[in-house]
């Protein structure tokens, strides 16, 4: 009899867990609205100061559409006595609450970890990632602007420590979505 009671309790617990996970899944974001226009694989065109480079990136949903993952790389040739190098980074876009604006966390091959707030312009063509203000640290702003269905203008800006809104352009580039890339 005790064994039947234990089995019944396990079945009830499993059913309760299944229902709670189903409710939790309905509460989590699964659609990314205008940010979905960034999905796919992109090839960089151009570059900017301090050196011309080439590269590409992808934005893909992951964890059953609960996050967006951006993987990026840039290859820079040797210039002005500096050796050639490659930069890789990973950004995860997420929402802590379904009704909240997205946030992002960024990691790169140079050891940076940057927390960004994410905003979308009212015309849904500009996507701005702005780092939080930290004392004695630079501030970063990364902007994607749709210039067509499969083209973007990209700008990366840095504000010096102590001047969090004095952004100066560090890199400007363009990107084109790969034809076989998923939108």
Question: Keywords for this structure?
Answer:
mainly beta; 1 helix; Lipocalin; 14% helix; globular; ten-stranded antiparallel beta barrel; 2 domains; 183 residues
**What proportion of the residues is helical, as a percent range?**
10-25%
Give the strand order of the largest sheet, numbering strands 1, 2, ... along the chain: 1-2-3-4-5-6-7-8-9-10
Distance between the termini: 57 Å
Structural class: mainly beta
* H/E topology pattern: HEEEEEEEEEE
Largest sheet: 10 strands, antiparallel, barrel
Per CATH, what is the topology of the largest domain? Answer: Lipocalin
In summary, what is this structure?
The chain is built from one helix and ten strands. It has one helix at residues 2-27; strands at 40-45, 54-62, 67-76, 85-94, 103-108, 113-120, 126-131, 139-148, 151-159, 168-177. Strands 1-2-3-4-5-6-7-8-9-10 form a ten-stranded antiparallel beta barrel.
Could you explain how this protein is built, in words?
With 183 residues, this protein is mostly beta strands. It has 2 domains: 1-29; 33-177, Lipocalin. Helix content is 14%, strand content 46%. The protein has 1 helix and 10 strands. Strands 1-2-3-4-5-6-7-8-9-10 form a 10-stranded antiparallel barrel. The N and C termini lie far apart (57 Å).
Could you give the topology of this structure?
Blueprint: H1 2-27, E1 40-45, E2 54-62, E3 67-76, E4 85-94, E5 103-108, E6 113-120, E7 126-131, E8 139-148, E9 151-159, E10 168-177
Antiparallel strand pairs: 1-2, 1-10, 2-3, 3-4, 4-5, 5-6, 6-7, 7-8, 8-9, 9-10
């Amino acid at each position: 009899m005790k064994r039947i009671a234990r089995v019944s309790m396990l079945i009830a617990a499993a059913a309760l867990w299944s229902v709670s996970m189903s409710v939790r899944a309905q509460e989590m974001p699964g659609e990314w609205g205008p940010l979905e226009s960034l999905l796919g694989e992109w090839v960089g065109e151009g570059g900017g100061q301090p050196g011309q480079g080439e590269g590409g990136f992808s934005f893909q949903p992951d964890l059953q559409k609960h996050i967006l993952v951006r993987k990026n790389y840039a290859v820079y040739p040797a210039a002005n006595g500096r050796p050639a190098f490659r930069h890789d980074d990973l950004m995860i876009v997420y929402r802590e609450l379904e009704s909240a604006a997205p946030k992002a966390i960024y990691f790169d091959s140079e050891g940076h970890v940057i927390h960004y707030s994410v905003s979308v312009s009212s015309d849904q063509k500009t996507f701005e990632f702005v780092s939080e203000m930290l004392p004695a640290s630079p501030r970063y702003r990364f902007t994607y602007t749709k210039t067509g269905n499969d083209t973007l203008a990209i700008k990366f800006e840095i504000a010096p420590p102590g001047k969090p809104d004095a952004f100066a352009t560090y890199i400007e580039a363009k990107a084109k979505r790969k034809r076989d890339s998923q939108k």
